[in-house]
Amino acid sequence: MCGIVGLLLKNAALNENLGRFVTPMLVSMAERGPDSAGLAVFTDRDLGEKYSLFAQDAQFDWDALERVLDEALVPTPRIEAKGRYARLSLDVEPDTLRRWMAEHFPHLHVLSAGHFMDIYKDAGHPAEIAGRYDFPALTGSHAVGHTRMATESAITPAHAHPFTAGEDFCLVHNGSLSNPYKIRRRLERKGIRFETDNDTEAACRFLEWRLREGDGLETALAEGFSVLDGFYTLLMATRDELALVRDSFACKPAVVAETDDYVAIGSEYRALAHLPGVKEASLFEPRPEEIYTWRR
Amino acid sequence: METITDTDKTVRVDLDESSVRDLNQFLHHDLAASGVKHIEVLNPNGRHNIAVGVDAPVSVDIRGHAGYFIGGMNKQARITVHGNVGWSVGENIMSGSIRVKGNASECAGASGHGGLVVIEGDASSRCGISMKGCDIVVGGSVGHMSAFMAQLGTLVVCGDADAGLGDSLYEAVIYVRGTIKGLGADAREEPMGEEDYARVAALLDKAGFDHDPKAFKRVASARTLYHWNADHHQEY
């Protein structure tokens, strides 16, 4: 199993309510994925280079990290912390930061990098995680979430979805891939590094690599159909787009509701049932191997 | 269940107030003694397992979009969903009828032994998978691999059928009014006979659709998979 949810607000006046709308979507999918959860949230404006960080140590001293960064890497970093999670804003390239972190703070996990996206993910029940990081208070233009029922790799915050690669790109997955190691070996030969042994990470890094090589999202996904073997409903987000695909068997569910105000995606209709106007929304089930994209 | 109100032998259950378990326990244990003939279910909001395992000549109206397994294992009851349903509506239906006013997700009428399932809109993939004697009438189109391994009964599709229709069919028969994107292994189109026209007309009438039976095509098993053939080398 696993649950996926996504929400893209077409009406920017609703951006203040993004967290309030998407949190019940995520929590309603807890029965499909009770062991971990995550949420990627995008703003509609460029907030400069920022990173989502996750500390293994619950008592991690974020103030100390701020001081060390200020002295050793670049001046005036800004850290906003919520327990083990922190958003770090500072003007440094992702590769440089990742290298520096691996050397100086190996127990800090860099969850994501980008100018528009923050990622929260953790192990535990989705309702607890939503409370832990105050998901209802989040604002922005679009969000992608996942509740996980692990069927292959370990249950840890790093193995939770969304997975990211590069900047401002994330992916959630319901299903299982049968050739993740083949994809992984192909990408590792190109110098692409992996952080976990999770099958979804292979799909995420493959698609991000195609995007970086110049493919559009639709071209990358069309190639994904021939490269990714297994069962999947994949939901992806970039700074201004959501994309949804299902494999040729389409045995992992998804429902889409579209109104003038939003596009909402859930594994099941009950994830969408609380949204305003959903009863009058255009509702449909995505077809196998068809690419659906929505732009904010 | 406190929220049930008995008016002229009708009860109304609001699933925002009562649980699906409360509803189903009432239907399984208390219905016969209550004399209730009509149950109205409010705020289904995509919840699963609504009105499964009913075995009584009652009508159930579910007002809104419902989730998975609606009316599963139904006997005798006449269930209507005034909205869409998720996966496996009427799974293993034995008798009675289930009508969905909107669309149905995957596996509608899966394994059904008897009774009638009507989807007024579209049904998604694997509609009628492994059906064993029920009848299914779909007002719109069906998704891929519909009637996969269907053993007995009739699937009537008033719209189109997606790829892999009737893959590995046994003795169920499929009638399609629109276009068939592709037939599955061992399924073949056959000429319509008088019996077929009568069978389609009777089901359209029961389901309340007004189409000319002459517009339907018949798909049935070529029966080449009935016996193992080593020369096929697993390629059919």
UniProtKB/TrEMBL annotation, chain A:
Checking InterPro entries in the record gives: GATase_2_dom, Ntn_hydrolases_N
* Pfam name, any one: GATase_6
Q: Which domain of life is it from?
A: Bacteria
> Which GO-annotated molecular functions does the record name?
glycosyltransferase activity
Instruction: Tell me which UniProt keywords the record has, alphabetically.
Output: Glutamine amidotransferase, Glycosyltransferase, Transferase
Where does the Glutamine amidotransferase type-2 domain lie?
2-296
Q: What is this protein called?
A: Amidophosphoribosyltransferase
Automatic annotation (TrEMBL), chain B:
The record's section on SUPFAM superfamilies has: Alpha subunit of glutamate synthase, C-terminal domain
User: Transmembrane region positions?
Assistant: none
Instruction: Provide the organism lineage as a comma list.
Output: Bacteria, Pseudomonadati, Pseudomonadota, Gammaproteobacteria, Chromatiales
Xref: Gene3D superfamilies: Glutamate synthase, alpha subunit, C-terminal domain
Q: Which GO terms describe its molecular function?
A: oxidoreductase activity
Under which name does UniProt file this protein? Protein glxC
Q: Which domain of life is it from?
A: Bacteria
Q: Which CDD domains match?
A: GXGXG
